[in-house]
């Protein structure tokens, strides 16, 4: 596995992550890193999504989701699962799902 591999990973972020522009900041950070995927609020008060792109950029985004988030957010836990190598990106951009 190299940093050039395209990977896909699902994530769920817990804490004070709704009503604090978390999705908007996540979309902006993902686009800045050249990633594709999606982000959405859940009924349980968490934020759910998927990241796809070069391994090193996905890892950078995972760190951002774990420790930074939006300015008013308070992240208590970040879960990442279903990490896999993909042959091509399954999304064309980084979207906020309503």
TrEMBL record:
* Entry keyword set: Hydrolase
**Top enzyme category:** hydrolase
Query: Which residues are responsible for catalysis?
Result: 23, 41
List the InterPro entries hit by this protein, alphabetically. Acylphosphatase (IPR020456), Acylphosphatase-like_dom (IPR001792), Acylphosphatase-like_dom_sf (IPR036046), Acylphosphatase_CS (IPR017968)
Q: Which residues form the Acylphosphatase-like domain?
A: 8-98
Q: What is its EC number?
A: 3.6.1.7
Q: Which Gene Ontology molecular function entries are recorded, alphabetically?
A: acylphosphatase activity
Q: What catalytic activity does the UniProt entry give for this protein?
A: an acyl phosphate + H2O = a carboxylate + phosphate + H(+)
Q: Which family is this sequence assigned to?
A: Belongs to the acylphosphatase family.
What this protein is called in its record is Acylphosphatase
What is the source species? Seriola lalandi dorsalis
């Amino acid at each position: 596995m190299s940093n050039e591999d395209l990977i896909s990973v699902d994530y769920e972020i817990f804490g004070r992550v709704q009503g604090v522009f978390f999705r908007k900041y996540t979309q902006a950070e993902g686009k800045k890193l050249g990633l594709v995927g999606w982000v959405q609020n859940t009924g349980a008060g968490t934020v759910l999504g998927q990241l796809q792109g070069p391994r090193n950029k996905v890892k950078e985004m995972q760190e951002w989701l774990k420790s930074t988030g939006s300015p008013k957010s308070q992240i208590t836990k970040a879960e990442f699962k279903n990490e896999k190598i993909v042959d091509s990106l399954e999304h064309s951009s980084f979207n906020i799902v309503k």
